[in-house]
Design goal:
Length: about 220
Amino acid sequence: MNIKSVSIAEKIQEINQHLTPDVRLIAISKKVSVAKMREAYAAGIRDFGENRLQEALEKQEQLQDLDDICWHFIGHLQSNKAKPALESMDWIHTVDSMKLLNRLNKLAGELNRRPKICLQVKMLPDPNKYGWSSEELLAACPELSAVENLDVQGLMTMLPLGLSDSEILDAFNATRKFRDKINQTSNLQLSELSMGMSGDYLLAIKAGATMIRVGRTIFGER
Ligand SMILES: *Cc1c(COP(=O)(O)O)cnc(C)c1O
């Protein structure tokens, strides 16, 4: 019997069937070759996400001919990498502290840039992850809405490992409700919800995700 391997294009097609016009698929290409990224591009992908700046910069160099790619940064960003991140990324999903936010805001003003950002929130306690707790984020809202040089678009979340499907759905729904609460109680107007990865993107879509970040389902195991 022939074992037919499923192409990157077929995997993207399969995911696309589950998307509505208000959900954007970001192909997470960390540790993936530029050849595979070109395959994904040929299949219609224009949003790519990377978690290491150095790797992202090298790939941008090699993919210069594809000039309509939208680049998303999805890794923990150290303050000392804020400048190159601002210079190269269209979105930063992982703004996870006031210190980083203030640094990005200051540099964005100096560089005359206005990147789109998401605030990384931990809806469930998780000592292994960066991000604000919901209480911390709520308390920071007045300060966040005073930020001038960043386009604060939404929330990004990652869930702890080992949850059941219904726990995952609950946590994603809680993230959407939390976004709505911020919009009602502060001057921030957040429209985006960056949530859902290979294992849980269908649940994230059900809960109202606007950006899903999918790596392995498209490109295979890393
Ligand atoms: C790696 C990564 C993803 C994609 O994970 P997959 O399981 O490969 O789909 C999504 N978001 C973040 C922040 C990641 O680091």
